[in-house]
Fold:
Amino acid sequence: MSDQLHLTYNISPDDFTRAGEASSDVKGKLKQMGVSPEAVRKVAIAMYEGEINMVIHANGGTINIIVSPDEVKMILEDEGPGIADIELAMQAGYSTAPDKVRSLGFGAGMGLPNMKKYSDQMKIQTELGVGTTVTMTVKL
Amino acid sequence: MDKFFTAVRLEENLCKGCINCIKRCPTGAIRVRNGKAVITKQFCIDCGECIRICPHHAKLAVYDPLNVMNQYEYTVALPAPSLYGQFNNLDDINIILTALKRMGFDDIYEVSGAAELVSEMSRKYVEEHKSNYPLISTACPSVVRLIRVRFPNLLEHLLPIKAPVDIAAELARKKAMEATGLSADKIGIIFISPCAAKVSAVKEPLGYEKSDVDAVIAIKEIYPKILNYMSQIEKKQDIEDIAISGKIGISWGGTGGEAGGLLTDNYLAADGIENVIRVLEDLEDQKFSSLEFIELNACNGGCVGGVLTVENPFVAKVKLKRLRKYMPVARNHLYKEEILDGFWTKGVQYEPVFNLGLDVKESIGKIAKVEELCEKFPGLDCGSCGAPTCKALAEDVVRGVASEMDCIHIFRQYINECHPDS
Structure:
């Protein structure tokens, strides 16, 4: 029996009714695994924000989750537009979300800041016109 | 003591082993095994959905019989506000309360009266605990039980104030002891309840050691008796003036009443157990900001929707609205009453009953196995195996309480492989 659990989710673009399904599934599984409530909260929020980002900005993508006894690793890959200025994107309140999205209550400019806040480690690889990969880790 | 006491029971000879209850249960607590429904009581939150849905009336709630009142020298009835929504053309609550006295209760203490005190206590508590926003109502025992097993991150948001019925019970006993000189055990405090969850909450309260309620009887059992005694009240002057509550207290009978009593607009009120779960999930993911209070009721419409009521909950709500129309806002105030012990005396502990393994390491393998089984099962969620979904069967297999062959589709495949020509 392996020491790691791999989960893969395909995130469909522009579908707000389904946005959050993947993070909610992971949250449920982590709870059933006896992961501490605090760590479950961190993963759920960080991943939810990432998932919503992929829906809003990146035409969807793929999320890979790797759970091992001491950490949860979330790898969010998309083939979206890329992030032009990571430093700016990391600022609380900065958003490039279109009005259509903001009118739904999203796009408050807290996506990346919250992902950083709720994960213990976050790495962003991005290339304009090619895509973005965000890797977040939450220690258990 | 049994911290997983549940008031829901199965009448086995009425159970046909159909899949209605397993499908409806919001916590996946029921399986059909050997043709009969079986409740895992650690998972059960007493919401009453299975009682509501069962077409064969095989699910029941346990509560005390009406003659429980004969066990005491002096009895006080505690009518829930939802009781008042059960009657047609009612203009005066005192008619119901007089009927209760004629039935044999020595005194009445309206739960709605105590509810007004809880509203005052809550108002102050909410104002003073901004760091715990949003505070979550704890009046519905099913909601507290749900949070205890499924939402550990939200435990700190629970409003640590006793439910109105328990405050009413304390005050009623004190009043009765003073009036009669009897010792506490000779006095029977009897709650007239709209729901089964209150039975469990009285037997095994969460947040405090012991409830002051001695017995719980069902609205639906006492309802015909009340009607009978009401019809015998002929003259207006025979109606005793017993009612003590105002608008705020009566409103607790339906969703929004408790939150309304807080006199803030910054609240959310939801009812129906599936909606409650959705709100709690979103709250856990911090999708709400700046709410002060969240009122949650497991039943549609709030307490008027309890499984032990008789009237359609939405009709009952209209009736409550009519009743309270000319009432004063509130008639009970903390400065007039001395509540000995209105707050919780202990926290509610997380009960991780749904855990698959003993630790994360063991659970990783088990969840992987569940995923693998889910791939194998047809994904029809047909319930023929006795579990509500293919995923639930997979978990049962991993827990060692079911087998893959319980799936008729897997079984058929197996038979076909054994006898390829058949």
